[in-house]
Amino acid sequence: MRRVSSLTWSEVLGYHRTRKGIGRRSLLVDRGESGYRNRFLPDGRILYMGEGKRGDQEPVGGNLRLLLAHREGTPLRVFLRERPGVWRDLGCYRVEGWRYALLEEEGRWVYWFTLAPGGCGEAP
Question: In what residue span(s) does the ScoMcrA-like SRA domain sit (predicted)?
Answer without folding.
Answer: 33-88
